[in-house]
Fold:
Amino acid sequence: MRFEILTIFPGFFAGIFENGILRRALAEELVTVGVHDLRAFTHDRHRTVDDRPFGGGEGMVLKPEPLAEALEALGIAPKADRAATIQRTVERPDSEGGGGFNPRIEPTQPAGILQAAEDFNRSQALYQGTTSPAAEKLNGSQALYQGTTSPAAEKLNGSQALDQGTTSPAAEKLNGSQALYQGTTSVVPESPQNERGALAPEGSLSENPPPLPRTRVILLSAQGRPFTQSLARELAGLERVVLICGRYEGVDERINELYCDLELSIGDYVLSGGELAAAVVMDATMRLVPGVLGNEASGEFESFGVADAEIATAEDGVPRSQHGSGGLLDYPHYTRPAEFGGLHVPEILLNGDHAQIRRWRREQQLRKTLANRPDLLEGAALSKEDCKLLDAIRSESH
Structure:
């Protein structure tokens, strides 16, 4: 899986991927991330990315042109063109045009750029063979290589991993992008390639058309639909997610209408920008990618998790001591010591009776949800036993 982040503050993400599960996911190449500086797709001396809103009002609005050019450079066509390409792909049998396509996004290693990346500290590995003004103006971005102890990767403090071997104008503008390829010292081209095994530009009808439904373009905005655990599970099944970080008063709405498949909000509050929201979406999604968590069941038995019927995790014949949350909040957890601050661990958790523990934990899930998030009960997967427990809990307050 790959994330692409479009932002005016690429340095914001420098520390996000250096710790915990995200670092491991990147180091093991289960997930890759590209961070792209929107200012690299501007054409004026001030690298302007915003302007005043039509109709008046406070604040500034992110201009559509840099965003559109950045998306084009990533091979993202407008939604209408993508839909048309999907339709043509469906109508044409796989036997035509080279025998189908490879559904993976496979990074390729351009010859010669690895040595350039290793030789430069706080420099730019610029697009080869171009005098693009955008390339000449880039001097502040970083290619962050997390989760590796390679000397070459450690020296890439200020370098940029840029597109090699293509003459497309959009690719030439990718000189401000950051490639976060973990666990490797190769510098991978940001711009999609028309090769088997690599990602062709979206909206094109090449011999090996890309898996367009496996890519989503998401605008992070306070006006978006709420981001939930179920949506994180959906995103974890995609090949590529493009996250557009809004700033100021927001993004020109035409970008949303033309390119974005989804508008997401992480809560009913306003942030100064979409970068924090992007970090939240990536963290919640990456941990659900197969292989990222040390124990796959950890992603099932937790708050907002799936119902028992959807959990296939086996426990080698040992009775489970917990329920799938089925959309509820998780139960309280305890560890050693058994007594702390005058409070004791509930005795039922120490008796070894899995059935009793399971029932107690389910009751606690219901109690927590009723107290803190009663709205979740409406859509939760509740059994008859759950409903009886809820009635008993509610009666205690009367």
Notes: Residues 95-212 have pLDDT under 50 and may be disordered. The two ends are 51 Å apart (CA to CA). Residues 304-395 form a domain with the Trp Operon Repressor; Chain A fold (CATH 1.10.1270.20).
